[in-house]
Amino acid sequence: MSNELLYLGSLCLLCVIGTVVLLKTKLINVETEPNKNKKIVIFLMLAILLMFALIGLEQ
Q: Where are the transmembrane segments (predicted)?
């Protein structure tokens, strides 16, 4: 397994774990704060896209 795949996998895992932790600790309240929730989801997607871009540049 290459380093790029390890970086990408660990980033995705961190994003998922972070989102679950925030949801469980009620820092993101889905019912009362839908806009904040959308912003965090968009941020996570951008982080994953950034990793894809960095991996593409390295190759």
A: 6-28, 40-57
pTM exceeding the 0.85 threshold for the entire prediction: no
CB 30 within 8 A of CB 24: no
pLDDT tens digits for 1-55? 577 777 777 777 777 777 777 777 766 555 666 666 677 777 777 777 777 777 7
How far is residue 32's CA from residue 58's CA, in Å, rounded to a whole number? 42
Using CA atoms, how far apart are residues 3 and 11, in angstroms rounded to an integer? 12
CB contact at 8 A, 22 and 40:
yes
**For the chain, which residues make up each domain, given as ranges?**
3-58
DSSP state of 30: T
